[in-house]
C-alpha cells in the first residue's frame, strides 16, 4: 500500500475538505496500534457466538473502510472474498450446525467482525512502516519483521510473475479453450511454476538478509516509528467497544457464550 504525505499527518486532525484527508485518516495511525486494536477485537469476540455482539462491533468498524485510503479496485478485490467467507461460514453452520438459523447468522457475523479489523490494519499500513513499528514498538525480532516486509513487498512481484507465466505458456500454444479439465490442469501447472519461482526468490532474499547481518545484533534505524496519543486512544477504544457490544447483547437477552 503506497502512502502519501497527507496520510502521514496526525490522525486526530483531518486535512482540508476536498484534499482527500478524511479518506486517508487511518493511514495516520501507527501500524502497531492498528495491529494491537485488531488483535484485541479478535480475541474479545472469540467467546461470543451470538449475532448481536459481533454485529455491534462490525457496525462500528465497517464505516472505517471509507477512511482506509484503499481505492475501489482494492476494496473490490478484498471485499468479494471477505463476503464469500462470511456467507460460506453461515451456510456451513446452517446445514451442519445445531444452533439453527440464528446460530449460523451469529457465526457469519462473528467471523466478519473478527476479520475486518485485521484487513483494515493491513490495507491502511505501509509495509515499510509496519516493519519499523514491529521492531521499534512491539519489540519483534528483526528477522521475522523483515520477513513480513519482504512478503508484503513480494505480493506485486508474484502477481507480475503469474502474468508472465501465463503469457509464456500462451505463446507456446498451451491454451485450454473451453475445456474445464484442461483449464484446471493448466492452472495447477502455472501454480507449480509460480511456487518454484517464489522459492527461488525467497532463497535469494534470505541470502541477502544474512549478508547484511539481520538478526545478529542491535541495528540503527533510518526511520523512527512514532507513537502518538491518537494511537493510544485507538487501542483504548477497542475494550470500550467490546464492553458496549457485550452490554447491548446482554441487555437484549441474546448473549450466547462459547463456553457457557
From TrEMBL:
CDD domains: EcfT. Coiled coil: none annotated. The keyword Transmembrane helix applies. GO terms for cellular component: plasma membrane. It is found in: Membrane. It is a multi-pass membrane protein. It holds the Pfam family CbiQ. The keyword Nucleus does not apply. The chain crosses the membrane at residues 35-67, 74-96, 102-123, 233-259. Keywords: Membrane, Transmembrane, Transmembrane helix. InterPro entries: ABC/ECF_trnsptr_transmembrane. PANTHER family: PROTEIN ABCI12, CHLOROPLASTIC. This is Energy-coupling factor transport system permease protein. It comes from Actinorugispora endophytica.
Amino acid at each position: 500500500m503506497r502512502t502519501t504525505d497527507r496520510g502521514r499527518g496526525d490522525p486526530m486532525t483531518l486535512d482540508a475538505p476536498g484534499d482527500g484527508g478524511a479518506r486517508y485518516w487511518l493511514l495516520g495511525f501507527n501500524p502497531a496500534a492498528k495491529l494491537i486494536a485488531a488483535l484485541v477485537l479478535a480475541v474479545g469476540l472469540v467467546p461470543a457466538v451470538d449475532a448481536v455482539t459481533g454485529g455491534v462491533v462490525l457496525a462500528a468498524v465497517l464505516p472505517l473502510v471509507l477512511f482506509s485510503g484503499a481505492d475501489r479496485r482494492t476494496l473490490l478485490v478484498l471485499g468479494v472474498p471477505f463476503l464469500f467467507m462470511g456467507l460460506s461460514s453461515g451456510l456451513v453452520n446452517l446445514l451442519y450446525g445445531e444452533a439453527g438459523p440464528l446460530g449460523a447468522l451469529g457465526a457469519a457475523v462473528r467471523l466478519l467482525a473478527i476479520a475486518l479489523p485485521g484487513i483494515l490494519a493491513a490495507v491502511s499500513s505501509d509495509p515499510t512502516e509496519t516493519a519499523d513499528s514491529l521492531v521499534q514498538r512491539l519489540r519483534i525480532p528483526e528477522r521475522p519483521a523483515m520477513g513480513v516486509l519482504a512478503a508484503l513487498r513480494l505480493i506485486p512481484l508474484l502477481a507480475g510473475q503469474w502474468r508472465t507465466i501465463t503469457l509464456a505458456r500462451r505463446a507456446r500454444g498451451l491454451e485450454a479453450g473451453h475445456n474445464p479439465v484442461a483449464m484446471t490442469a493448466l492452472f495447477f501447472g502455472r501454480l507449480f511454476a509460480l511456487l518454484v519461482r517464489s522459492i527461488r526468490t525467497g532463497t535469494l532474499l534470505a541470502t541477502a538478509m544474512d549478508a547484511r547481518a539481520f538478526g545478529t545484533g542491535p541495528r540503527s534505524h533510518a526511520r523512527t516509528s512514532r507513537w502518538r496519543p491518537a494511537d493510544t486512544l485507538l487501542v483504548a477504544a477497542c475494550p470500550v467497544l467490546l464492553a458496549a457490544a457485550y452490554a447491548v447483547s446482554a441487555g437484549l437477552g441474546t448473549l450466547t457464550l462459547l463456553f457457557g
